[in-house]
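During the reporting period the student researcher (J.K.) took over the structure-prediction task from the postdoctoral fellow and processed the backlog of single-chain submissions. One of the processed entries is reproduced below for the supervisory committee.
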Amino acid sequence: MNTQNKTYRKTAIIVGILYIIGTLSGILSLVFSDLSRNAENTLLQISANENQIIIAALFVLTMGLALVMVPVMMYPILKKHNPVLALGYVIFRGALEGATNILITISWLLLVPLSRAYVEFGAGDAALLEFFATTLFEGEEIGAMLNIVFSLGAAMFYTALFQAKLVPRWLSGWGLLSLISYFTAGLLGLFGVFGPLSSTSVAMQLPLALQEMVLAVWLISKGFNSVPEN
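J.K. obtained the following structure tokens:
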């Protein structure tokens, strides 16, 4: 195996690991924030469990950073096949999605001082503070827009993979087909049909989540089918 092939093999392994880290971090962020998101009194729940929401926010940040690194790692390879899609992938899955995840992280961290204010000021400002908490925590529009941005970036990625045959076409094709329901979930969430974390939305996102885990395992175990020459 020459030096270039070794480099691409390492890239495939790193990308696979980053996908797994990003997915696990996203799941753990929901696990640690579940009690607060589903509590009757969100701010009271957060004030009693501040560390949980801080940990959840850090998992969101970890997810964002891991997934931002995927297009960074893939760009040198994809640009040899399709420079336009490679650049678009970096913009949507790197810059835009990364910025959105940072915004969500900041919003969740702001819930901690907001919950303290809720406990300190009491019932007088309770309704207003609870409104702010719901806006920061749920952020349905942000969640829906994240789905849409993710879908556009992922469409560029899987199209480039499909064209270049870097992975089996059934795998990249699976990703493209799964994006239809994923994008639809984001679009319907944006119009308030259901929330980004509703059971319907999660079910519509599940096929792509499963595909990405299969892709991650494939990249770690098999690598790329072929790599372009310089």
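The committee noted the following: The chain has a mean pLDDT of 86.
J.K. will present the remaining backlog at the next meeting.
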